[in-house]
Amino acid sequence: MRTVSLGDRTSKVHVSDFGRPHRTGGSVAEFLAGLPNFLAASQLRELAERIVTARRAGRPVIVGMGAHVIKVGLSPVLIDLMERGVITALALNGAGIVHDYEIALAGRTSEDVDAALPDGSFGVTAETGTFLNDAICRGHSAGQGLGEAVATAMRSATLAHPTMSLIVRASELGVPVTVHVAVGTDVLHIHPDADGAAIGATALLDFRRFCRSVEGLEGGCTSTSAPP
Length: 228
What we know:
The chain is of the alpha/beta class. The protein has helices spanning 28-33, 39-56, 68-71, 75-83, 94-106, 113-116, 126-141, 146-156, 166-173, 196-214; strands spanning 61-65, 89-93, 177-180, 221-225. The protein has a four-stranded parallel beta sheet with strand order 3-2-1-4, with helices on both faces. 31% of the residues are buried.
């Protein structure tokens, strides 16, 4: 065996990258700056820098996300970023409209899958299936994309918590929302009101709109989040 000197060997970890303890009274900026310069902390700072650079240059910031972001209570943070002009477009999956609508309608969402699957009650919530499928069908007739269709319906509905809805607030701010689904991937599709032609047509229109959104992405920023 041949040995090498530590001084000559490449090392990926240096004390200059270590974190610093947060101090009472310190700012959020100081807390972030004190995180270790590794893995998620480093990626978070890089993402923030890229977003700031993109918006200062007038480039888009597109957030593509699954529904877990909504289910863990981050909608108010994303709404704030839209209101500040940071986020310029949202791209959701089908579960996103389910949880966003239920939060806006009743202030609660997310079924207990393990408890609901054995008796066949998972995914059959009447209000959710009826409202969203009707919105999609109406939007299809009006030539709307899926995101616009749901936004139009939600803005006209009586909701207990409309200010918690990403879709409603995005629509009010003029931030485009596209929804990307495949038939059979969401609980909406097992409801008798589901119309495959309407789902497919509105989703395809949203896909095309999303493609137009990314045309100007050079120099911009995308952030994606998917369930684990």
